[in-house]
Design goal:
By secondary structure, the protein is α+β, with helices and mostly antiparallel strands. It is built from four helices and 14 strands. Strands 1-2-3-4-5-6-7-9-10-12 form a ten-stranded antiparallel β-barrel. Strands 13-14 form a two-stranded antiparallel ribbon. It is globular, with a radius of gyration of 30 Å.
Amino acid sequence: MVLLPFLLWATCLANASAYVLSAARHSLCNVRARSSTISAITSSQVCVAQNTDLLFGEFRNMFQGHFDNVAQVQQDRDNGLSPREGGGHEHIHCHIEPLAHLDGLKEDQAAVLASYYFDGQPERLFRTRIYLLQACEADPDFGDCVEMAIFRVREEKEQQLKENCDSSASISWDAEDTAPDLRIPECSIFWRKIDGRFDGRMRTESIVVQSPVLKKAIVVQDDVALSEDSLWCNDRGHDTDGNYVYGNIHGIPYKMDRVQWARCPTIPTAPGQPGQSANPYRQRVEA
């Protein structure tokens, strides 16, 4: 009779031990599973960050230099197309240069100065912008991309650029040049890499901007493309009544090729005569 209670106690102890061992194994499996999941998530996040860094670096390397649409202009004139209402394009040169010494930039940011001038002549500067570049992960509309915020350049610095023929090296740039009051609202361009090139779009199809030059509201549309060899800009605008303001009336981009010169190449005015720096289109008209 003494043996029976002992056997019952031993059985209960064995069952309890088995339960504790099972629970411990189950807990250990859960810990291992959670650890594996955390490792996988961390690894995935690292890969995404690395991919974004590579994308940002590639874009920055490509988004600089001189671009000019002189070849497009010549083709337009051969086809009898004049600028603006004539269906053709103005001769535009774009110079993009990094502003590496701009204060206040974060590690995942960069800034460039973009100068636009007519006829391949730096003294004919008509637009300057500072573009603040930011690497973006998993944007809801564009995925991994580069956001480009657009800032106007202060009037006094625009004048300095004109006096220095588009050279920014002698001008001091600081964080005030990307102050909130200089940012053009809702105009940011989001660049995605597609089929070996970068494709840029605004968040919406168009926006309304108050033009400080024209003193009226302008409906702006903009889509751009960047490759190793070219920069295409389809920047166009009309007023709120639908009247044409700027850009190509047919929505054909300004196809600027990457070039190695800042001024339009020398073009002979006539056989045997010395050349001069001028717009090829102007030479055809004056001939």
